[in-house]
Structures are given as C-alpha cells and as structure tokens.
Specification:
alpha/beta, 30% helix, two-stranded antiparallel sheet, globular
Length: 315
C-alpha cells in the first residue's frame, strides 16, 4: 500500500504562499525534464495545510472540514504520476481556505464585512456561492455557517494573490509547455466524491468523467477513457453529476490542442470504511488510473501529430 509519507521525490517545485503560514507553500509541482508524456494531473482539493488562524476561525472541530477535502486523493495522484511520468500539480492550501475550482468572482459577499463588499447590484453570487460552496466555502449541509467572523477585503486579496492566481498560472504554463513539446496536452483534474447511490442494486458508479458536455476535450479521449475503465471493471458515468468546474472552464482549449478532463473517484474505492485513511483498494485504483493515463497519453500524442484536426462539433 502507498505510504502516506511517500512523495515523488524530496523536492518538487513549490509555489505560492499560504496566508497565515509563513513557511508553507500553496502548491507543489512535480515535472521531470524533459516532460515524459503529454499529461498533467492536477489536484486542487487535496490540500491539508491548515494555518492556526484558519482553524481558530472555524465554528466546528477541525475534523469537520475533512468533508471539504478530496481526502488523500493527492497520494493516489502521486502513485499514478510515479508510475507514468505524468507531470503533477498538488495544492497544499486547503479548500476550506479557498477553492481552486471556483473563479475569483465566485464570491458570496454576505461572508464579508460591509465595507469589503462591492457596490450594490454590481456582483450577483453564483448558484454554487449561494449554496455555500463558492470561492471561499461558507457552509456545509447539516452544519450551517463554518466561520466565526466575517472576512475583510485583505483576507480575499491574500488568498487570491498567495494561492489562487499562482496555482492557475503554474497550471497554465505547464500545459503550454506540454503542448509545445508534444503538439497537444491533456489536463486530468483529479477529484474524489462521496459514494454515489446505486439505483438498481448493481455496483454504484466508481468514476465520473467530466468534459463539460463535450466542450473541454476531443471526443476520442472520452471514448478511450470509458473503454479503458470498462476493461478494468470500473463503472463510469459521463458528466453527471460532475461535468467539470472552473479549472476546465479556464484551461481547456481543445482547438488550441489543450484538452482537459475532470475525474471524480469514489472515495470508498481507495479509502478505509471511515473514509479517513487509505484503504485496501488504493493500489488497484492507482494501477487502473495509471493505465488510463498511459492510454490517454498515447491518444493525445496522436492528436498532437495531427494538430488542427479538431472536429467542429463535439463527438
């Protein structure tokens, strides 16, 4: 089984700055040079570095914010990257601080002191922000408000400048480097999800593949992904209930040969029964995802060889 302390190497390129934690970087990038395959795996919700001030602001015990984490999916990603040579970008900043899969404007301004809010009517929160899961999470079902205090404008600025913008700048630059080397690139935005109900008594969906309903990648990559997962005996779904968020919206440019998929992995397939620590299924999951990455890398390389042949309509 993967050890929780195991990393790709002792280094990695660290970037950004977690507010309230002067010695902690917001993310780590691992990318061998030259880039071995045209794939970047990104893990925006795996961060577990909680500054003391953030924990003091919580209304609940720190264990409650584990519900916001894609628990230990970064360790799965490390295993896949090690097995395949894929580039890897892992957030260290926790989602409770700032959600890297939300846009910088996706703010619930009711969380902020009055003087920090924009002029009346100039900013309408999105559906996700209104539900409590905007750029800065506000509440969770069954828990109510997460925070003891309202935020100031400096809180938002520090989190955007220290975490959000450098993470996305690094992600975009890495994809551009991959495309320049290979002619095409693929982003796999890796997440985990609570177990989904099985409506007909069969095994439930283990993996959800999101491509923003055909907008974020060449259709042949989706076909290949489903075929590979079926061969592994993994039940997969397409876009429902997760089609992809801000990461895909911002970085997917399939007509410019940058493709992107979001993968949501059922946590019960790699964690223990309590969904807290790695479980017996982790090695099999790493093996199957590594095979998927190799399969997709080969097809992305083929797309790079004939860049510009992207079909006009989603397949």
């Amino acid at each position: 089984m993967i050890a929780t302390s195991e990393t790709l190497d002792s280094g990695g390129c660290k970037g950004g700055q977690i507010p309230g934690a002067p010695n902690e970087h917001a993310f780590t990038q691992y990318a061998a040079q030259p880039l071995a395959i045209p794939v970047l795996i990104a893990v925006p919700h795996g961060g577990r570095t909680y500054p003391p001030a953030l924990l003091r602001d919580l209304r609940y015990p720190p264990s409650m914010v584990l519900r916001l984490e894609d628990r230990l999916i970064d360790l799965v990603a490390q295993g896949v990257a090690r097995a395949t040579g894929a580039a890897l970008l892992v957030a260290q900043a926790p989602r409770a601080m700032i959600d890297l899969n939300r846009g910088p404007e996706d703010v619930d301004w009711e969380m902020f002191v009055r003087e920090a809010r924009p002029a009346s009517g100039s900013a309408t929160p999105s559906r996700r922000a209104r539900s409590g899961l905007g750029l800065i999470p506000r509440r969770l079902p069954g828990m109510g408000e997460l925070w003891r205090r309202r935020l100031g404008s400096e809180d938002l600025a520090e989190r955007l400048d220290g975490v959000h913008e450098p993470y996305h700048a690094t992600l975009g630059a890495t994809l551009a480097d991959l495309r320049d080397r290979w002619g095409a690139a693929l982003l796999i935005d890796l997440h985990s999800m609570p177990p989904l109900p099985a409506p007909d008594g069969r095994g439930g969906t283990q993996i959800v593949i999101g491509d923003r309903f055909g907008a974020s990648c060449h259709g042949s990559l989706v076909v290949a992904a489903f075929a590979h997962l079926a061969g592994c005996g993994r039940e997969a779904a397409h876009n429902r209930p997760y089609a992809g968020g801000y990461v895909l919206e911002r970085h997917a440019q399939p007509r410019q040969a940058i493709h992107a998929l979001q993968l949501e992995i059922d946590r019960s397939r790699y964690l223990d029964a309590a969904l807290i620590e790695l479980g017996a299924g982790v090695d099999a999951m790493v093996k199957d995802l590594a095979g998927l990455v190799r399969c997709l890398a080969e097809r992305v390389s083929d797309l790079g060889d004939k860049a510009g042949a992207w079909p006009q309509a989603a397949e």
